[in-house]
Amino acid sequence: MGLYADYIFPRLMDHVMRAPAFEEQRKRALAGVSGRVLEIGFGTGLNLPHYPSAVTWLTGIEPTRLLDDRVAERSRPLAMPVEVLRLRAEALPWEDQQFDCVVSTWTLCSIADPLRALSEVRRVLRSDGTFVFLEHGRSDDPKVARWQNILNPFQRLFACGCHLNRQVDRLIVENGFTIERLDRFVMESVSRPGADMYRGVARPAHPSKK
How far is Cα 48 from Cα 66, in angstroms, rounded to an integer? Predict the structure, then answer.
């Protein structure tokens, strides 16, 4: 991956994404999560302090090894079991309908094949389960969206594959989910091209059958 991707970017990302404004959004998004949970794009474990006590087991997947010491430190105070596996969301090893909830926070922007990943999420999610998402993506403002398209190649290079212009709600719906709640807002503390947020809850529209 190289020096920047392996050592510099993870520390930069961890510093930026633990700012109070992001922490508040994590708290809001995760408030209703319960049961056996799968988190895709686990990163450095910044969601860990915000999981409620109703979570009985947390499995996090992350394709690269990111600051394991910080993950261990954030996991230590928790009562729930936490396991972190080096996996990609596009190919999950579990059988169908294994999780009560799947969580994705600022992750769909950087997955190489988000369509395949969401298909896998739907497969391993229980038919009555929830997909909780908190993402940045394409703006509804045409002027901002135009700048997102222009800046996207530079963003992908600087932020290790992150896209500015993915239309998150459309990706979710097109992959067999029904969005039950969607909050669209602009985070004032974030530079405008990356400030358009999608926070919501979706359920499988056509549950996979065993």
Answer: 15
